[in-house]
Model the fold of this input.
Amino acid sequence: MRALISVSDKTGIVDLARSLHALGVQLLSTGGTAKLLAEEGLPVTEVAEVTGFPEMLDGRVKTLHPKVHGGLLARRDLPAHMAALKEHGIATIDILVVNLYPFEATVAKPGCTLADAIENIDIGGPAMVRSAAKNWRDVAVLTDASQYAGVVEELKAGGLTLKTRFALSVAAFNRISNYDAAISDYLSAIEFDETAEVPRRSAYPAQANGRFVKLQDLRYGENPHQTAAFYRDLYPAPGSLVTAKQLQGKELSYNNIADADAAWECVKSFEQPACVIVKHANPCGVAVGSGPLQAYQKAFQTDPTSAFGGIIALNRPLDGAAAEAISKQFVEVLMAPGYSPEALAVFKAKANVRVLQIELPPGGPTAWDQGLNLSDVKRVGSGLLIQSADNHVLQREDLKVVTTLQPTPQQIDDLMFAWKVAKFVKSNAIVFCKDGMTMGVGAGQMSRLDSARIASIKAGHAKLSLQGTAVASDAFFPFRDGLDVVVDAGASCVIQPGGSMRDQEVIDAANERGVVMVFSGVRHFRH
Done:
């Protein structure tokens, strides 16, 4: 057997080469890899000796040769192929170990020049990988260090199975696909200027190449007549739902995952211990407290009816007391960064509850750039809408008080809390809050007035008083009637983006009604 090894990332390569040599595999290699193996005392033949042609053009050409690709592509079961190899003095290559020039890492560096990017586009590596992967029945192709140990163990046990060879081939084609997509994304985003050493890049390339890895097939989609599967980004953000570990419970459904994502994205935005309960993609209860138990109790109090069968997320490890309280309601999915043994014991008796453990992003909610999607994508008929994600975090100094009456420190706290929740509520969104707790949530209505009325109706059903509450509106009030509805319900302060042609009319109405109004300057539509 012969193995050709040509790697940019040399992690684990010496150990792999030693293992192959011990199994009687002849080693071929290129350039720096050959030098490294020789320095480690391994017998290695340089590819240039096999091809009879030196590496040239600063290494741009070294493996693009029939003695390489013939050895990779020849089918061992076809006499004509084997005769052709013999006629031209070409030996078979049975194992190919290749990883590619670090194009993705290069273009991710600040100040990457176009010249650096171009030089890190691998040509020979992908060509060899494609050849070996095409001929997978006869050639094993390794494209990642994580594959080395498993392959060595199988070889020691008697040889690679066809199942393993096929899996390696699929992984190889996937790697080439992702590599080519990264090159396409980069090059088609460049706004070419021959005078610019570091090219200007558009956030939206001329061709968008999605790269996702399937996590699991789902029983069905939003409805039983639809099929579905769950995918993650090729490089998922830390602290995102796709990194979750399911500790127990039934398989997640399409709707479970959609709602769980809404709950997790909301709860991880809070610094204090927080609980978010989501139903049909909208928060129906959000609260902060001294710990998980108090946060849950306050969140549940907002809308106990909607919380039935909801998705619950906490941003602190769940303890036994909080678990006992949560177990008294019907919950579909429970999420937290960790669980005490007592908490897990509580839910062990409820085998159907889906319990997920998700690590919070490094740095927590104050590290705004951690664990966040960079873009949002929505499928439309035969197309995509792509936008930058709504990652704006409102700061207190951003608030603009537009009324005569000034807010108290407590009102500022309530307004900031209400605004943070409103960001995760479907438009049109009206959210009443007080003392770190949602008191009424109106979501997804065509009329902002209806959202306000629904929020107050829900508060009434939950026997919650809206007197002295803070209200957040995800977009401006186009007329004073929306303000009048929330003030009639009991609001004492309001936060809204501002920007309406009738802002002054609404400000005058707030002064007339004796309430505080602040402008955020930012809209949070969520469709």
In short: Residues 162-187 form the longest helix (26 residues). The mean pLDDT is 93.
